[in-house]
Every structure is written in structure tokens, then in C-alpha cells.
Amino acid sequence: MQERKTECTRRGFLGTAATGLVAAGLATLAPGRLTADETESAKKDIITRKLGKSNISVPIISMGVMNANNPGIVQASYEKGVRHFDTAAYYQFGRNEQMVGTVIKKMGVRDKVIIGTKIYTSQQRVTDPKEAKKKFIKMAEGSLNRLKTDYVDILYLHDVSDPADFTNPGVIEALNTLKDQKKIKLAAVATHSNMAGVINEVIKGGFYDVVLTAVNFTMADDAEMMKAISDASKKGIGIIGMKNMAGGSRWPNPETRRNYSSKTIAKAALKWVLHHESITTCIPGYDNHEHLEQNFEVAYDLEYSDEESKFLTDNDIALGVGFCRQCKKCLASCPNDADVPTLMRVHMYAAQYANFQHARQTLNDIPKQNGLANCLLCTTCTAECANTVDIGRRIDELKLIYA
Ligand code: SF4
Ligand code: SF4
Known about the structure:
The protein is α/β, with parallel strands linked by helices. The chain has two domains: 2-315, NADP-dependent oxidoreductase domain (TIM Barrel), CATH 3.20.20; 324-402, no CATH class. It has 15 helices and twelve strands. It has helices at residues 36-43, 71-80, 95-107, 129-147, 169-180, 195-205, 223-234, 262-274, 289-297, 306-312, 315-321, 340-352, 356-364, 380-384, 391-402, and strands at residues 2-4, 21-23, 48-50, 57-59, 63-64, 84-86, 114-120, 152-158, 184-191, 210-214, 238-242, 279-282. Strands 5-6-7-8-9-10-11-12 form an eight-stranded parallel β-sheet, covered by helices on one side. A two-stranded antiparallel sheet has the order 1-2. Strands 3-4 form a two-stranded antiparallel ribbon. 49% of the residues are buried. One iron/sulfur cluster binds next to helix 14 and helix 15.
């Protein structure tokens, strides 16, 4: 292990917690079967961090597999040094889990990687604890089958925003049973709405080991959420970051990118998250080698380049991105009950991630009485949004694609 110093420049914004970053070679993570590429990587000190109070350490850059349907990119990620793969039963109707499982099994590296997967409980709305337990264990076993493994390292309750989503005694019992059976190592929740509320509730409950949360530079002013992250980490809860690029290089308004390259945007955004030492690793979603390369460069070095610093302190960028924090404050303002936050996510998946299958799947899950057709583009809700989300334009674009 060795200490690295990370430069903090230009306002506290750029790095609030960038001291004493723990760096370690990959040798401890990948014994045996080292490829030439891995041997080369090991020499360069990939930065790794421990996940809460577990005995798991991973490189600070992981792979969010959601947008990928090419097994080659999963394999290339492993060969590059990625050791943590994040998937979900919901992604591609289970095919995403199947792809991860097939690649890891074929490479014979199950004991060298951390697999996180997610299952929905909130959508089932099963309140009877016995029924909830039965259903949950069945869903978890479905994931194990698709992943072709006897255990997952991190099992998440997918997309929770309300404590009722993750405090059902039946679900807690199911997670304990799965732990006893050694089918899961860590129990976790994933949240991209009401993040501070969820994290604080997790701290209070003292049951969950890990939280996967949306966090990025456009949310720097959300002191409550940043405090919750730090508090959770101090309590030994592992924190993993998602939506770290606020939509990445395909932002809705191309003009908001100004003259910054995709590489600058991606690297600056990931570094901003990882300058918070409470956050163990990020799971950027990517589906090509260029993005793998540029993301993984961050695993070796968290110092900002001049251009990255300039990008992060450019107020016009933070305002122009209009990242939807899924705060749901706009919901009450719609006279037609349109589910604006979920529609904003559909827009992000389609326009920013170019993941049209996931966008369609999410759109189809919106109850008809809250769907896209309900929006009459009156723009009332736009005035309610404190985060400069140009709701009207995004819904207009969704109507062009899906109407
Ligand atoms: S559109 Fe604005 S108000 Fe509505 S959920 Fe997103 S950030 Fe919140
Ligand atoms: S634009 Fe009007 S109709 Fe459409 S979601 Fe907003 S408030 Fe509802």
C-alpha cells in the first residue's frame, strides 16, 4: 500500500476530501493468470479503496454494464484492470446478467471479481413479509442462475426512494437467509431519488452494507446528500457512485458542452466524485473501448488537468447540464399527473446514453395514467424545477421518438 497526494485547486469545489488516497497494485486483486496488459497495469499503481467495513477492495473505476451488450467489452475491461461489474436483473430483461456471467465464467475469474446485481422490490409492492421473503429469494435465485454463479458479492434492492421499499421485514429476512446460505456477501440498496433520505435511513437501520447512489458535480450544492454520504462512510457503509457524469458527453443541449472534449468531461466528472474519499468506486456505463480507456485512466491518477479544472469551475456548464436529480418536486404541479421524473430518466437513457431499449423498457413501466401522452406541454412544471431541467424540450423530444 502506498499513499498518494492529490492536488486540490480552485475552490473547495474541486476536491473536498482529497488527501491520503490509498493506492495499491493489482497483484492482490488478481493473483495468477495475469495477462501482459495486467502486468503492465500493476506497475502503475491502480488506486483501490475498501468497500465500507467489508474485506472487499476494488479499483476506484468499475464498470456499469447496463449500456453494454457486447461481451468483448466486459472481457476487455477485466483485462484492463476492472474488477467490479455492476448489472441488474432489469437490464435487457436479464440478458445483461447473462452476458456478465458468461464472460466471467469463460475467463475463469469468478474469484477475482466483484459482481453486483439488483432486483426490484418496490415495483412488486408486496407488503406481506412472508410473501415478500418468498418472492425476493426467488428473484435472487433467478439472478444467480443468469449470472452462472453460486453467489453475488453485492445484492441491491433496485431503485429505492422510500424507506418502505427496503425495510419490509420479509425482505430483511430474505437477505439474511441468502447471507447464511452464502448466496450473497453484502446487502445493499441502489437509489437515484431522495438519496439523502435513503442514506440516512440506511444509517439509522444499521442493516445494509452498501449504498449505490447517484452523485455528480452538478449536485455539489446538495450539502445534505454529501453529508449523508460522508456519515454513512464513517459508519462503515460502503458507498458506490453512479450517474457520475450527469449524462456524460451526450448532454441534451450540445451547446452546453462548449469547447470541452468528451474525454475532459468524462475524466473531470469521475475525478470530482472520487475526490470524495467516502466514495469507494464509480460505475461509469460504457459500451466501447475508447470510453473504457478514458475512464480507466482515472484509476491511476486523480489530479485534475488544467482543462478539467476549468471545466469543473465553469458555472455555465453546471447550470446548462440541467441534470434531473429525481427530486420529484415537479410532480405536484402537473395538472395531468404526468410522471415527469421518470420521463426525464427515459430521456436520459435515450438521448444521453443512446440506450433505446432501456429507455423503452422504463417508459413502458410508467402507468398509463401518468404516461407521456398525459403531458400537454403546458410548461407549468418547468417553473417548479430548481435544477434548470428544460422539461418541456425533453418531453417534446420524447414525443417525437415515442408518440
Ligand atoms: S425535473 Fe426538476 S423538479 Fe422534477 S424531478 Fe427532475 S430535478 Fe426534480
Ligand atoms: S408540461 Fe404541463 S402537462 Fe406536461 S408534465 Fe409539465 S405540467 Fe404536466
